[in-house]
Amino acid sequence: MKWWQKTVVYELYPKSFQDTTGSGTGDIKGMIKRLGYLKSLGVGAIWLTPVCKSPMVDNGYDIEDYCAIDPSYGTMEDMDLLFAEAKKRNIRIVIDLVFNHTSDQNPWFLESKQSKDNPKADWYIWRDAKEDGSEPTNWRGIFGGSAWTWCEERQQYYLHTFAYQQPDLNWANPDVRKALYDAANFWVNKGAGGFRVDAIPYIKKPEVLKDGEPDGKDGMVSVHDMTVNTKGILDYLHEFKENVTEGHDIFTVGEANGVKASELHEWVGENGVFDMIFEFSHVNLEFKGIETWCKPDPWTIQDLKKALRNSQEATRDNGWYPVFFENHDKPRCTDHYFPEDADKGQCAKLMGTLLYTLRGTPFLYQGQELGYRNVKYDSIQKYNDISSYGQYDLALSEGLSEEEALKAVHRFSRDSARTPMQWNDQENAGFSTGIPWLPVHDDYKTMNVEAEEKDPSSVLVYYQQLAKLRADYAPFTKGDFEEILEEDENIFAYRRNTKDQSIFVLLNFSGKEVSYDCSLTENMQYIFGNDQPKTGVLKPYQACIYVKN
Ligand code: BGC
Predict the structure, then answer these.
(1) DSSP E strands: which ranges in 369-524?
(2) In testing the pocket of ligand 1, which one of 15, 52, 57, 162 has its CB within 8 Å of the most ligand atoms?
(3) What is the pTM of this model?
(4) Would you identify the CATH topology of the domain 476-548?
(5) Catalytic residue among 58, 62, 255, 279, which?
(6) I want to staple 348 with a disulfide (CB 3.0 to 4.6 A). Which of 180, 288, 371, 442 is the partner?
């Protein structure tokens, strides 16, 4: 097995992790200060969301310079020190490659927009207006509004899958691809342990860009549906692999929403382009598409089981699965999967058990190990996330009241995943001595690292124990996945078998006590869980792990 299959990856949101200067924004020195904490979680790799120079319109996913550190985070010397200090602790640093688009302040774009015939004129996707002067197509960007923005200087529109400050690069141009591979190799040479590759299914655009059937009252169609996984995309990605990652002991995980299980073998594994891809069906149970963001679909535990089962099956022979339930774009899992009145501490531990026992590499998201909850600011203005604004407006245009739209923001805003790290019960939770860029969650007095480290029954200690078990028992990493009780409406149960040993995991996702066939755990030894085990019965949200030699 490769090192990255055996370890735990921690996704770190730099802006909110640890501020050491009083600026109100986390920084690289803060990461170095907390490496010991990450080590105590059994982490072997840290995926940093982008730290490159950026105007921060989308918190770093709008890159101005791929080979410079944003001054708010520190310097390249700080970054070099982070690589070195992490290495001492056997922790690798994973870089986020944002290659579908740049910032509109990137010198490449500043040059490209000047005229139709400058050397970088076709580094981005430029089109003339329609005859009536309107946008070239009726595509809606992922953050809401048209996916096209008019450029006065050049007298043309440019395409942006996300915000207008994030113009899409033209991958059809070999010079663009070379510049991106050079940027990635800059980080390989720094010693990166891997890459998370952002928004990758959008890099290739169709030959002809044309209107689509409107999917909302705004007369637009989601850009996602018009450009996702355009035929030929894999040729680019094979080229990326050959030029960047091949021959290095690093891993790649692509953010590749929309790749079907039947296509997976082309994307991951030996003949694929990445080692893993993030697939979102289990975190998007409530969404049919971006346009229905404010009208969530109801879902059942069976739906969740099905999504998890499918991804386990799809990666049985193809590549490897990156297990995740939270990231910087998603709400907190304690609120997402469980009702308001549930015991959230138990739910957090249940999700931790699932995260560490499914077959694949666990991607733990900052704060998840403390049992974080969503934030519910009382007005849309208090939110920072650019997509929450666009989606709030979309909700209003779909006929929701302001109150209903704000409720949807409470449920889904990306800011819930972005509130500052809670280190202690002091001012600003020990995150910063200045004014935090995003208000600290008001539960920090009890939910913080210092308090949870001292409490043997805390979510944090539970996560530390899980990491240790995962290192101690081979089936956690090497075992295959065999689902039991497939038809059960409340329990998700599975075995992870190796030749010599297997673990058996029982998870009650419901808020009621449920029973199961006692013989299932016969001759097995209980090793871990979030409550006292009782053969044949699971309490609400109870998680149990058994082992059989
Ligand atoms: C990232 C987001 C970002 C978007 C645009 C993603 O999918 O995870 O945080 O806003 O790409 O770069």
Answers:
(1) 480-484, 491-497, 502-508, 514-515
(2) 162
(3) 0.97
(4) Immunoglobulin-like (2.60.40)
(5) 255
(6) 371
